[in-house]
């Protein structure tokens, strides 16, 4: 009996769900051109929340070098976007990384990715509401924040925000109520919000040309003293660092990139590319163009802001309106604040809609409580999912600092991106990874991956045969031996890259200055990584046709994994503690609900994975 439970448990962790392929006529949509995909990618990339975050990153972390941060982020986003695109190609449906993983990698991987994305969406919605509160407060002279700070700041714990943001809480309650009543984001709202969102960077960049001063990129300690002595500013002046264009060094650039990485969203464009007539060309081209446009917009706004105002005098929570006030363009500051309120409202709606749709999808798949998937007959909405999402968002938006929320977003999305890159590294070398439901029904019923592998004749794999297969594969197509080799090598590579990233993140100067111990360890790690990569490269790849394939496999996914892990190393320990608590809660839910129900033999009607299409 125990062996049977263990066997069911092991098979359930890797069980993959079939997907009924959809004919092209069923989509009901016109094919998307490359221009359509670029437009969609730009809309997803130009998130209004980053216009608030720019102030915090510039003031405390990167200074004017935030422009370089965006360049690093753009390059990293291309790598993750390409991996995401191939991951999508394994599943002939649009949807989030959660949908793809439950079909391509199994329920355990799907739960981890889905739970991480939920954390990202909760933090994103909370961050946007905090940003909305700051923009609204700036319109009325910051009177609300000053009053709340005087009242609550002495009594708040150090790990929470200085004061509870009741404006953000009120916005969450209002929007949650509207969504419960069946409110939707219409096409008109999307078009208006996109137009307003394009107004901000264009206007800001033009203003920077007019009111900017190049000396603000060459500030010295003398400038700092003269600007801060006798200052009548209503907020604290930030640190100088070392002055100049890169006042906080290389560490500041990397830490800023780790936080800003979350705002180059390529999910919407990649998942919608199924409608493109030529996905191989459309995905790569539209991905590069949309990220390039996003880089120009964000770096242009950052450059204009740091040219208009010295970086240590930027207001962290409402930087753009306050910058106009500091240079004497008061009316322009109020206009920008009003525009930000509109675009932030739209961004919040998108984040909350994505959140409760993902919650509903995971509940419908049996990974969360099934009550969250119930649709109200009158409003047509998943009321329990909306209320759960709204409650969690309201609590985090009220109590956590905006910088902590953004770090939580990074902690949530970077592991998910890493899992996607690892999946690409593994899936390409596995035999018969994705079978359609039609193919499975021909065999009589759905079978697990483990059972499918047992039904295929596989030659005995002794130690000598496996060692020989490392360099001289016995087949030109993937088999069980080559698949196991790649699984093992990929796991080893993740471990080696994690150790290398830890060394480079904690002791970068000692490594590059030639410290004998650390430099030797780093070189040995690089040699091991190179050798294991060559072993993977020698294995046969699955010849199955995919609409998009990552070039330069296995090097490109490995670079993406390394970059993601290195950026994760820049996140503070406090953020990882919060992330660990979130994952512990998820583990309790997964073990105590999903696994217990499956082992108990509850036979729920499993919905097809095609019903769990969720936006990112």
Short summary:
It is globular, with a radius of gyration of 25 Å. The longest helix is centred in the middle third of the chain and has 35 residues, at 330-364.
Structure description:
Helix content is 68%, strand content 0%. By secondary structure, it is an all-alpha fold. The protein has two domains: 32-222 and 237-427, Up-down Bundle (Amino acid/polyamine transporter I); 468-602, no CATH class. Helix 5 crosses helix 12.
Question: Secondary-structure map with pairings?
Answer:
Elements: H1 2-14, H2 24-27, H3 34-45, H4 50-62, H5 66-89, H6 97-104, H7 107-139, H8 143-152, H9 166-180, H10 187-211, H11 221-228, H12 249-260, H13 267-272, H14 279-308, H15 319-326, H16 330-364, H17 383-399, H18 402-427, H19 437-442, H20 449-454, H21 463-471, H22 480-506, H23 508-512, H24 516-538, H25 555-568, H26 573-599
């Amino acid at each position: 009996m125990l062996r049977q439970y263990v066997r069911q448990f092991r098979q359930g962790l890797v069980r993959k769900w079939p997907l009924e392929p959809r004919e092209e006529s069923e989509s009901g949509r016109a094919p998307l051109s490359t221009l359509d995909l670029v437009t969609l990618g730009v809309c997803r990339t130009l998130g209004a929340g980053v216009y608030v975050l720019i102030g915090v990153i510039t003031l405390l972390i990167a200074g004017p070098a935030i422009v370089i941060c965006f360049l690093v982020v753009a390059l990293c986003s291309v790598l993750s976007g390409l991996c995401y695109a191939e991951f999508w190609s394994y599943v002939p449906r649009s949807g989030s990384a959660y949908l793809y993983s439950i079909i391509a990698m199994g329920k355990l991987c799907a739960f981890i990715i889905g739970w991480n994305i939920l954390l990202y969406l909760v933090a994103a919605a909370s961050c946007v509401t905090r940003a909305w509160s700051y923009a609204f407060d700036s319109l009325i002279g910051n009177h609300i924040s000053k009053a709340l700070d005087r009242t609550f700041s002495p009594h708040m714990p150090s790990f929470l925000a200085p004061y509870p943001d009741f404006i953000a809480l009120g916005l969450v309650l209002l929007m949650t109520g509207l969504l419960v009543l069946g409110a939707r984001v219409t096409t008109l709202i999307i078009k208006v919000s996109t137009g307003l969102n394009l107004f901000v960077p264009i206007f800001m960049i033009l203003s920077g040309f007019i009111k900017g001063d190049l000396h603000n990129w060459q500030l010295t300690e003398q400038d700092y003293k003269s600007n801060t002595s006798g200052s009548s500013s209503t907020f604290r002046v930030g640190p100088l660092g070392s002055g100049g264009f890169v006042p906080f060094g290389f560490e500041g650039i990397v830490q800023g990139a780790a936080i800003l990485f979350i705002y180059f969203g390529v999910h919407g464009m990649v998942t919608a590319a199924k409608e493109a007539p030529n996905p191989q060309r459309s995905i790569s081209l539209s991905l590069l163009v949309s990220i390039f446009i996003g880089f120009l917009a964000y770096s242009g706004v950052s450059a204009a802001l740091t040219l208009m105002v010295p970086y240590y005098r930027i207001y962290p929570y409402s930087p753009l309106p306050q910058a106009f006030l500091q240079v004497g363009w008061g009316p322009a500051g109020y206009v920008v604040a009003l525009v930000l309120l509109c675009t932030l409202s739209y961004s919040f709606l998108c984040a909350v809609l994505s959140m409760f749709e993902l919650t509903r999808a995971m509940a419908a798949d049996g990974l969360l409580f099934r009550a969250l998937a119930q649709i109200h007959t009158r409003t047509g909405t998943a009321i329990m999912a909306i209320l759960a999402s709204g409650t969690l968002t309201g609590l985090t938006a009220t109590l956590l600092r905006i910088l902590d929320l953004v770090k939580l977003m990074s902690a949530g999305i970077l592991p998910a991106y890493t899992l996607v890159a690892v999946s690409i590294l593994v899936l390409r070398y596995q035999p018969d990874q994705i079978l359609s439901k039609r193919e499975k029904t021909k065999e009589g019923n759905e079978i697990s991956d483990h059972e499918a592998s047992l039904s295929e004749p596989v030659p005995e794999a002794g130690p000598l045969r496996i060692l020989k297969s490392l360099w001289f594969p016995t087949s030109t197509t993937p088999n069980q031996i080559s698949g196991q080799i790649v699984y093992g090598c990929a796991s080893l590579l993740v471990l080696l890259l994690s150790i290398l990233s830890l060394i480079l993140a904690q002791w970068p100067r000692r490594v590059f200055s030639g410290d004998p111990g650390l430099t030797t360890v780093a070189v040995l790690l690089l040699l091991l990584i190179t050798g294991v990569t060559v072993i993977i490269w020698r294995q046969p790849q699955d010849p199955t046709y995919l609409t998009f394939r990552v070039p330069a496999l296995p090097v490109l996914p490995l670079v993406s994994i390394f970059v993601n892990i290195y950026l994760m190393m820049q996140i503070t320990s406090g953020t990882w503690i919060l992330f660990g608590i979130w994952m512990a809660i998820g583990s309790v839910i997964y073990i105590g609900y999903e696994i217990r129900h499956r082992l108990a033999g509850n036979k729920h009607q499993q919905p097809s994975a095609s019903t769990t299409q969720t936006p990112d």
